[in-house]
Give the backbone structure.
Amino acid sequence: MLDLLAVQDAATGPNVHWLTAALWAGAVVDVGGAIGFLFFAERTERAFQLPREMTFWPQYASVFLVVLALLYAVTARHPELLLPNVGVAIVGRALGGAFYLRRAAMTPGLQWPIAVMGATNALFAFAYITILGTSGLRMLWRTI
């Protein structure tokens, strides 16, 4: 059984401000990288001297997906304590769904694997929202 007082003590301990700062710094670095790769892909590839072979980007994405899966797994163990992570999952799944579905629609030829990925992400976002319901979404909103 989870000791909520122990969790609260750990979350409000003397070093929590350092943890918070480190987490925010990591988020800023990740967003900066995402902006660079999304809007300035060629320049970013040159600046970081990234390999141009086709296997690099799927491998890079796989590392990200493993980290994302760990975030979901940790959140799934105690979603009531990590409700803001559920909000992040909703936004992430919705953005992923929109990205994949748009990509499938705009790319000529048979794009069903990308469309399936888009539909799957959108379905997860819808499921999370539906499962939370109105009261859960209100509670989520209060936690962020």
Remarks:
- DSSP finds six helices and no strands in the chain.
